[in-house]
Amino acid sequence: MHYYPSPIVNLINHISRLPGIGLKTAERLALHILRSSRIEAEQLAGSIVDIKEKIRLCTLCFGLSDKPVCDICGDPARNAGVLCVVEQPADMVAVEKSGAYRGRYHILQGVLSPMDGIGPENIRFNELMNRIRTENIEEVVLATSTGVEGEATASFIRDRLKQVPVRVTRIASGIPVGGDLKYVDQVTLKRAMEGRYAL
Question: Which fold has domain 77-170?
Answer without folding.
Answer: Dna Topoisomerase Vi A Subunit; Chain: A, domain 2 (3.40.1360)
